[in-house]
Amino acid sequence: MKTTQVQRKSLKDYEPFIESDLLESILQLSSELRGLRVLHVNATSFGGGVAEILHTLIPLMKDCGLTVDWKVIDAPSQFFDLTKRMHNALQGKEDRLSDEDRNLFKNVSKDNASFIKPGEYDIAVIHDPQPVGLPAFADFGSCRLVWRCHIDTSSPNRVFWDYLNGFLSYYNAAVFTLKDYAKDGISIDKIYEIPPSIDPLSNKNRELSKEEMQQALRKLGIESGKPVITQVSRFDPWKDPLGVVDAYRKLKERFRELQLLLIGSMASDDPEGWKIYEDLLRYSGMDYDIKVLSNFQNISDIEVNAAQRVSKVVLQKSLREGFALTVSEAMWKKTPVVGGNVGGIPLQIHHGINGYLVESVEDTVEYTGRILDDPGLAKEMGNKGYEIVKKDFLSTRHLHQYLQLFRDLTN
Length: 411
Known about the structure:
By secondary structure, the chain is an alpha/beta fold. Helices cover 42% and strands 15% of the residues. It has helices at 20-33, 49-63, 77-90, 99-113, 158-168, 210-220, 241-252, 272-284, 301-310, 325-332, 345-348, 361-373, 375-392, 395-410; strands at residues 2-3, 37-42, 67-72, 123-127, 144-149, 173-176, 190-193, 228-232, 259-264, 290-294, 313-316, 337-340, 355-358. Helix 1 runs parallel beside helix 14, helix 2 (49-63) crosses helix 14 (395-410) and helix 6 (210-220) packs across helix 9.
């Protein structure tokens, strides 16, 4: 396993976004937990929402007086092919688990477990399926173990779930975005509900200067003065990028100058992303008003920030979803969102209030068109979305819930 370094952050910088009673509770919990030794383990230090969240939460935990390490498992590419299949199967996709798959998963878990030393940590938070097997082969001593599952496992492929569930009996608690995501019969007694969050001070979410906006829009290659709609997500079939293109093409019949941005990030634990990216390029064809962009084209957080700000509508047309941080990101910038009525998206979008929930391409066309037609409605929805995120989906709320979890486990 490799240790990931994080930049320093100060809770004081976040005080403008924190209600006084929440800040007081965070400071009280920090006093109680000072010196607590915490380990986070996941599959990648960049790309995707988990890594993004940890790059904020871990520095804030440290600023609260905790001693926190972040380790990333080391594995061959075949392992990440398997865990991507496992990810899809846990969301219900048909697949089979061979003896070769089981041996590969066991061997990678065993190899990474050798880096764990008994007595080194008080709490370990293991994120998602990739490192879930570590406790079966590592001696964590008296360390309390938490499995943080970022996906919806309520209706999984049974074979994959049974295999995964065999490792969960080692854990003292599990954290899901929604308790309903936990499959009946899970081998963990304590289930906590903690939704993800966005960092209002990160490059992806902070205010941009005029010069930064202009430079970012040039990199995105969009024409100023023409309306833009955007979807930001991994290149993943569950995000339905081809359905987004279908919706754009129907909208283009009415809004002749409409432009579409499809921005994705490639992560080391998601080998399927390249295939989806290539399929999307073919599907988009020679329409120069569609831009398919990624971090490998030097599209960074600043460009994503600018895209979400300049867009008339941000889409998140997911078919299955854990949470979709991009929804809160767009709402924080007062941009209305049209999103799939799945997973954690309805936690963020209140239908008809700050955006719309959709079930199909036709729904997406109807509601996106409604916002494009009515600037007054777009502004009203944007303002309401901002207030929802400020109240419920910022890093400070997320930090507070983790501190409460740690206190529960240590008590």
